[in-house]
C-alpha cells in the first residue's frame, strides 16, 4: 500500500495538469528503507511528448546524487498519461528499474477528475496497490 500525504498527492496532480498535453514526470524521495514519500521533485520530460516520458539524463544524475547525499531513495516514481487510463504501458513496464518504488500514474484525460493509481513493477510484473491519502505522514511535506 502507498501512504501519501495529501499535499504531495495534490502537487503531483497539479504538475500533471500543468504539463498537459505533455506527460509530466518526477519522483518523491524518502529516507532509505522507510517507504515514506516526503520530498517531491518535479522533473522535466526530456521527450516533451503527450505519449511518452523520459527523465533528462543530466537532471536524473543530479537528483539521484542529491538523494544519495541525503540518505534518500526514490519512494515514488510518477508520471501522467494524457489520453489513457492511469495504467502502466508496455514501455513504462520495460523502463521500471526501481523494484522498491511505488509507480504512480495520473491520468489527465478528463479535465474534471484526476485518476491517481499506484503500482509495484518488479521483473515486468505489474501489481496495482491501494493508495491511502493521509493528512500527515510524520514528516512535513517539502
UniProtKB/TrEMBL annotation:
Highest rank taxon of the organism: Bacteria
Keywords from the UniProt entry: Hydrolase, Metal-binding, Metalloprotease, Protease, Zinc
Domain called MPN: residue spans: 2-125
Gene3D superfamilies named in the record: Cytidine Deaminase, domain 2 (3.40.140.10)
Full protein name: M67 family metallopeptidase
Species in which this protein is naturally found: Nocardiopsis suaedae
